[in-house]
Amino acid sequence: MHRVYRPRNYLEIGVNDGRSLALSRVPSIAVDPAFKVVTSISCDVHLVKQTSDAFFARKDPLLHLRTGRNPFRALARRDPLRALGGDPRLELAFIDGMHLFEFALRDFMNIEKHARWSSVIVLDDMMPRNVDEAARDRHTGAWTGDVYKVAEVLRRFRPDLLVAEVDTTPTGVVAVFGADPSNTVLTQKYDAIIEEYVTEDPQDVPDEILTRKRAVAPEALLGAGFWPALIRARNLNRPRSAFTDLRRQIERVTG
Ligand SMILES: C[S@@+](CC[C@H](N)C(=O)[O-])C[C@H]1O[C@@H](n2cnc3c(N)ncnc32)[C@H](O)[C@@H]1O
Q1: CB 3.0–4.6 Å: which of 8, 140, 143, 254 could bond 164 by disulfide?
Q2: 167 or 75, which is more confident?
């Protein structure tokens, strides 16, 4: 995704030893209350030792992207208004923190507030291989928890988004296109959603998740023809109306 989508900034929730953060080459923010980075990192990163909820509660969580060595700073030099209060938008975000549905949903909601329609938000561990792996109360080595429910909630409450399941090893990811920071549906319905979707173990994992029926092969998604158009629209800051045509192009690959 880094190579194909070429984001100009990156946010990661859940860093652990830094293996996924090692893929970033652009100004990044990485959040984890208990990171233990042992991997060589090749980006200008603000490593935040906090939970993602605490991080997003900050007054200016993306400060690093505004003031660090990054493209926004160059823009700010040319545009004093930006220098005073530039509003960097996240381009690629990876949600891989606490593996409980409500945490991952909040991560998505908080990230979307700082994204644009042309951003890509990826959630990890969205396709547990069995019901044990999907338990809220962890009792397996590999653990997805019940974060897979986020995809179902987004499809149901946010049909404006494009939610694509991707058949990665071992536990699948979901890529979300078409973020809309002005949409308040999830915030308004948050309490009702939690009430309905946070359920006791064992979790009733749908067959389509376990069999990965809807999932697209990662090579097919990354090799698809829509990326250059998405990147162009992102870099030129095209309005949201441009998503309609791009959505059709993405759906040709994701179904
Ligand atoms: C699966 S690991 C991340 C792996 C990493 N993204 C990678 O692929 O190399 C999950 C991490 O989430 C962190 N975590 C747990 N609760 C969190 C929270 N509330 N906010 C942010 N990170 C959290 C844990 O400390 C753990 O290091």
Answers
A1: 254
A2: 167
